[in-house]
UniProtKB/TrEMBL annotation, chains A, B:
Designated name of the protein: Arginine biosynthesis bifunctional protein ArgJ
Originating species: Thioalkalivibrio denitrificans
Signal sequence segment: none
A single GO molecular function term of this UniProt record: L-glutamate N-acetyltransferase activity, acting on acetyl-L-ornithine as donor
A GO cellular component annotation in the UniProt record: cytoplasm
GN (gene name): argJ
Catalytic reactions of this protein: N(2)-acetyl-L-ornithine + L-glutamate = N-acetyl-L-glutamate + L-ornithine; L-glutamate + acetyl-CoA = N-acetyl-L-glutamate + CoA + H(+)
UniProt subunit comment: Heterotetramer of two alpha and two beta chains.
Residues with site note (Involved in the stabilization of negative charge on the oxyanion by the formation of the oxyanion hole): T116, G117
Binding site for substrate: T153, K179, T190, E274, N398, S403
Length: 403, 403
């Protein structure tokens, strides 16, 4: 059961974008598993990819093709990650792009490939090829909901959102879809997000705004600290509205909407982490540097002891404090650390707060959404991380998936 | 069920060391929970403590007292960690030391205090005081087995070992006991080890040899990446044998025995991690630096996806490779990475090895002891880490402990 998350009832078409969806039979039976997204000529496309040194073949090819410029198509399959597939994996990813160009014209280099699913199996390219004519024939502006569902692997609900943004020159649309369960799923390689707008955004600005939005959203979620081999987030600006994101004020408004969309989708991935029963927001303040604030947030978010305590609704402040203590913050004065869960002060002066009661702690830990505030008392830097608890179901899903 | 680990049948007395054991009722009923270890006058004592910034009161006091020199007593309680207890915790630890001096003479500063157990509760010092006369009266050389059991918290078996070491000047004894379940136990703060020898070892040499042995043993184990607030390892050399560890050859022999004792005790902690069903040795070779080899070993050892696959006996090489890829090794060439599980080659050239079969992989993963070899192909540096799998019981123990 996702935590406070339901599928959107509609997603707004983005002028300049058409989507096709097919059931190619890559792994799943009787469901769509292949998406073709077409963006208008002269769209600008920005992207952020996984930092894992072991990155999947489609990530390598998508990076190359994006650098060549002139992107017209995104080809996305679920069910197979095309990762750990060596040279043949690269050939398969390139062949898939070539099949798009064969049917729709242009060059294979104008196609970005994306794959998500099982690692270590070869992509069945003939099935991709067979599905291509139907995929091309079905391209339509209002296919976002179907595309959202086709990219799912073991997600339990589709993840999508649309925003209308009013700029000085008019109103533009921003729609995004994502799949993933926050690295939680075995072999499922893992997080993909595709966003599009009809605003006119220069390429450099687009990449800059995407980097900033991803940094504060998709890069702030963690389920188990494992990063995937296939992660990617793409933002296309078709310019079809003719409305420019140019002035500072427009830029702020557009960036805010982009941040909100990324934030919603990133949270959705954590909220749908199977096994997750609690949605946790870690706010670390008072760091000397953003880096040390982030290190503390990560140490707490990755601590299995903290995560199992959250699952048990156990206000176990000793585990949180121990995780803060081992985050590698040089010269940390534990007596200055203050920790609140929701509005309950639990730690101050290096120990349990005087007014704290177990009942108050248990009550706030019993909620499905738990904000944890950790103040380091060293400076003004902050970090925020979204995470979830660690439950029996996490072990079940990850241990039993292949049996 | 601990993995290939049984309690020792006997532990050798160490001339110059006497131990007393009492049931003080600190937390447990009807079992010993307090140990006093006396070392001969002019013993040299070396120690290694937790690096956690949030360290427990007894750790702070033990560090101070050790620096003052002239240590005669170690006072160890189980059931209460005296961690997260603020200023009162420090007073309580010092008061406990003072009670030893009151009964046995000397200064409070000659006593090192150690606590293990629940975090955040105050140490019941009056019970320590009440138990002191009996503890002192019962001091005896052959109490190692009882001491070993008294320091246990949720350990399922006592952990101890003795070695006789023949040096150029004669034979000496080395006995060690430890408690802990590798950071796996909730609130149980966590690993303590006490070693003693009757060899004559200069203080500087003793600390140097202990540092080296701990680095390759207790610092190479991980269950869940959480480090405790109370970890300590102490080595006392009473000199009662009159046999000096002086020549290079003696030093090598004694250091090897010390390493073997530490290695046994460190492994025992992982083998007794409740929830653990597999004992894993990660060997990383071919690193450019020891640090990068260790980073890779840690990334794999801490990966919940790898650990749940180990629990499921699933030879999921994609998860291992993905963990290697995210270890932050700059410029890692995945095509040079080779991974073997036992004698089965599973990964080479960035993907599944040609000769690999799932049957062979599953067979080797089904063992209770699994060595994993990861060759990075970049240089000559190595790292070795002991860990265990992640099972339902890990979640059960850590989620349900306080309920």
């Amino acid at each position: 059961m996702p935590i406070n998350l339901t599928e959107p009832t509609e997603l707004l078409p983005v002028p300049g974008v058409r989507l096709g969806v097919a059931a190619a039979g890559i792994r799943y039976r009787d469901r769509a598993d292949l998406v073709l997204m077409e963006v208008a000529v002269r769209s600008n496309v920005a992207a952020v990819f996984t930092q894992n040194a072991f990155c999947a073949a489609p990530v390598i090819v998508a990076r190359e093709h994006l650098a060549a410029g002139g992107v017209r198509y995104l080809l996305i399959n679920s069910g197979n990650a095309n990762a750990g597939t060596g040279d043949r994996g690269l050939k398969d990813a390139r062949a898939s792009c070539a099949h798009v160009a064969e049917i729709l014209g242009g060059q294979a280099e104008q196609v970005l490939p994306f794959s998500t699913g099982v690692i270590g199996e070869h992509l069945p390219v003939p099935r991709v090829r067979e599905a291509m004519p139907g995929l091309a024939a079905g391209l339509a502006a209002d296919n976002w909901m179907d595309a959202m569902r086709a990219i799912m692997t073991t997600d339990t609900v589709g993840k999508g959102i649309s925003r209308r943004v009013t700029l000085s020159g008019g109103t533009v649309t921003l729609t995004g879809i994502a799949k993933g369960s926050g690295m939680i799923r075995p072999d499922m390689a893992t997080m993909l997000a595709f966003l599009a707008t009809d605003a006119v955004v220069p390429a450099g600005d687009l990449q800059e705004m995407l980097n900033a939005a991803v940094e504060e959203s998709f890069n702030c979620i963690t389920v188990d600290g494992d990063t995937s081999t296939n992660d990617a987030c793409v933002l296309a600006a078709t310019g079809a509205s003719g409305v420019r994101v140019a002035e500072d004020d427009d830029r702020r408004r557009f960036a805010a909407a982009l941040q909100a969309v990324c934030d919603f989708l990133a949270q959705a991935i954590v909220r749908d982490g199977e096994g997750a029963t609690k949605f946790i927001t870690l706010h670390v303040t008072g760091g000397q540097t953003p880096d040390e604030a982030r290190r503390v947030a990560d140490a707490v978010a990755h601590s299995p002891l903290v995560k199992t305590a959250l699952f048990a609704s156990d206000p176990n402040w000793g585990r949180i404090l121990a995780a803060v203590g081992r985050a590698g913050v040089a010269g940390l004065d534990v007596s200055r650390v203050r920790i609140e869960i929701g509005d309950v002060l639990i730690v101050e002066g290096g120990g349990r707060a005087a007014a704290y009661t177990e009942e108050a702690g248990r009550q706030v830990m019993d909620q499905a959404e738990i904000p944890i505030y950790i103040h380091l008392g060293r400076g003004r830097s902050e970090a925020r991380v979204y995470t979830c608890d660690l439950s029996y179901d996490y072990v079940r899903i990850n241990a039993e998936y292949r049996s």
